[in-house]
Specification:
heterodimer, A: alpha+beta, 3-methyladenine DNA Glycosylase II, Chain A, domain 3, Alpha-Beta Plaits, 10% strand, elongated, B: mainly alpha, 9 helices
Chain lengths: 297, 192
Amino acid sequence: MGFSIVLISLVSMGGMGLVLALMLAVADKKLAVKEDPRVEKAIELLPGVNCGACGFAGCAAYAAALVEGKVSPNGCKPGGAEVAKKLVTLLGLEETEAVTPKVARVLCSGGIKEAVFDKVYTGIRTCAAAHLVGGEKACLYSCIGFGDCCEVCRFDAIHMGENGLPVVDVGKCTGCGECSRVCPRNIIELTDYDEVVHVYCRSRDKGAVTKKNCSAGCIACKLCEKDDDSGSVTVTENLSVIDHGINKAPVGATVRCPTKVIRVSDPAPGYEEYFKEKVREAEEKPSAAAASKRKKE
Amino acid sequence: MEVILIFVSAVLVNNFVLAYFLGICPFLGVSEKIESAVSMGFAVTFVLTLSSAITWLINHYILIAFNVPFLEYVSFIIVIAALVQFVEMFIRKTSKTLYDALGIYLPLITTNCAILGLALFGALREYSFIQNIVFGIGAGIGFTLALVIMAGIREDLELADVPEPLKGAAITLIIAGLLALAFMGFAGLISA
């Protein structure tokens, strides 16, 4: 009796093990996932900051999509042209156009001096928390000013300025977009290096309301729309919006802005001359509308 | 009726995580984001359901038939380990993202005591085949429920002002305790 139990145990357990092992062996063959060795190499080439600027969850996911040929190799913003070039050689692709480098811009001018503070906030000092209850400033489109964007920056490129607004160090900014994603009010935008003029306000309140809330808000007076003859500046929903696809440098529109929210940006590194040139061009050939108005004045 | 009772009991009253304290490892490990909590919950539910069926068959047609019930632990562990391996391969093939999101916790289902616990409970309580499967599904849904509630709380906790010494694991354990207390409230739902 004793011996038979041992035998039964051995046979039943051994049999079970065998069946399961067979099942797994078959599954291993059937469900095998082929990993392209180039994926590993592409991951090594990428900066590995997992910033997500390419639109994927991380560098590994982007590398996988790259090898599959689903995306172009110029999607990595922190890596820029250099990494794109290396990826092109690795994957044996044809040269694609260079990446347009991007830089983050804080599109709010309502700092401590300009904005009206109509609330007192004593909660947790993060923008995400303060945004839930409306922050301290009257304008609900404004920068909250607790610096979530500065916390999240991996390149030490954005800091709170004296006026309570974050200032981007354009030299250090890689355009990864991390700050832009973390900002609960979507004030920070990634802009192309060659965009010269931006509207530094996001308020869609009516002009009168904006004026009451902040001395540096877009009051939708439409002067910029009139002064720019390329048609790239339009006032929609009480806010001046520049279509950079039409004109990257509508410098004329900046001239008469009463609150100075539409202005020439800090030039991106390597673009200083280009920015100056654009401004000079605009001064030499002032837009017809601006010129006629100026004469009247 | 019996089946409904088993189901409700496994989901709420005798919730595997919050009443039996089984499967705490993924409960604390994968409850940072609701999204991955849901995926983990489904993976565990899947394994629980499958293993409840297979372990029942093994229990009845091998262990009881050959009168070797002392092999219960060994055989259940083998089956669960093989199943998890299979599920891992399957997920890796079908969804790389899910595979990456589950990370280390997927192979850890192998040693998840909730799954072994389920198999042993099923054998102990002498459930029928259908009852055992319902018990498995219920346990899985209960696990998912606990995980998702926990993940929801932890997501909101990101914005809360937690005292310095309680940050991280400490506050998580406190929440787990409070949640377990709350689930004790279901105890009166089914009278034994």
